[in-house]
TrEMBL record:
GO molecular function, one term: cholinesterase activity
Protein name: Carboxylic ester hydrolase
Keywords: Disulfide bond, Hydrolase, Signal
Protein family per UniProt: Belongs to the type-B carboxylesterase/lipase family.
The organism's place on the tree of life at top rank: Eukaryota
Gene3D superfamilies linked to this entry: alpha/beta hydrolase
Keyword RNA-binding: no
Organism: Paraphoma chrysanthemicola
Amino acid sequence: MHISLLLFVSFCLTSTSAGSSVSQDRPSATIDSGVVVGTSTAIPPAPHKIDKFLGVPFAAPLQRFSPPQKETPWQGIYDASTHKPACIQQFDFPEEDRARIIKWLNTPGPPAGESEDCLYLDIYAPPKGKEPKAVLFWIHGGVYLYGSGSLPLYDGSILAAIHDVVVVTTNYRLNVFGFPGSPEIPEGQRNLGLLDQRLALDWVQRNIAAFGGDPEQVTIFGESAGASSVDALITSPPHPLPFRAAIMQSGHKTLHPESSDSEKSWKKLIELAGCKESDALQCVRKKSALELKGIVERAALPFNPILDGVTVSKTPRRDRLSSINDTSAIARVPVMMGTNANEGSMYALPLARNTTEEFLHLVLSYLYPRGRPKGLLEALLKAYPLGEAGVKTEVGRMDRILTDVLSQCPIKFVADDSALVEIPTWRYYFDAGFSNSALFYGSGAYHSAEIEMVFGTYNTTDAPAFQVEVSRAMQKAWTDFAKDPIRGPGWGKVPEIASFGDGFRPGSSVEGKAVLEVIAEDLDKRCALYKGFYTG
């Protein structure tokens, strides 16, 4: 609930987090742990300001490699006017790869740097009304190695102001700090980053009403590893369920679940850190965060979730398919999922020196480490001929293959499974590229390109009118779904697919281009080539 600061004027209270005096006209809320004070911001063309509460703690101070605990109460007023640090980031060497990822996916980076003290979330809230608002809870991506809820890309101000929803973005622990592979840690406590997400959702259930949000109208949404996290919450749900709907953008955690690299990486880490196996966990706990960060980045050690049966189901596809008879198997909530037209472009560019055949050898050795099915390589080369629409170069060909293999086809299979067991399921497709957001010439609708369109955080100073229209349509679809997930985002359920952007690219004409259309053509025509791998 909002509290008048006039009650505190005579006491000249100071901020818990920054030690500065608090202005009377700043918005405040009383939550489980105390009073928080934020800021108000005007977002044209909205007729009202929105309130921002940044860097609000949802957990007690952390003990390294231990599960998160509920936040501790504070005395006085907590100043929630600025972002708090991101969790420790991992950008692997060599320097060329590291610099490229930072430039493409982390610029501008976390506004407050990074720290182990990082379990904070940000709330963007419109003015309270007679009825509580729907809530959108965002889980960022970054292959579980990097990322932050405080990145400017994820600013929820426009969604809150224009579409009258409450937006929450959260941090969670990453890399070795979030997914340590130590055998000394109980299996159910190793996915610390996913436990962090669950605690943040618990915080929302307990506190979001103070910001005008409805804890019974929470939609979780995320992109890439964030979408994978959303799917993990669906297929291995917390109890009681802290959300009523879900959106998965370019990611899943259902098909072909893999064993984690974390245990192997942990063994290498303790070797490089000079620790003995007999007391490895204690030894690594004593190392500085900066030293551990340096080791994992230079050795490029991957740390990611394990199939623990607690936060990640060991049989997610079977659980989804059996849920029509066993409704407790998964969270049978309405779901929207989709992909971008050029999911593979940023991964294909560094492989430009390879031919498609050489590239396919790499892909198939990954998909089928024990040997690929006979004739598959030849079938793939035939299925992606050069000269076809959108496939004019070897790099474009690789982009198309990676898009199908990594995103489009698996999302199709998950959506089909979901619809098969009568879960309300919608699918979207983002197919537009704009010069003010391109990663490089020809990057197209690359992996993560839709995020700024959904949040409205693209560069508006030179945005063409068509980009503005596409972004508004996507914002409306996402928020309409959050407000009424039974009715849906505004188009028919699977097998229909809503396409945003109509293939627009820099330099092309907008004449005749549709902002949103239901696709008639078969986008998934090559997915049969991968069905055996993903669903067999």
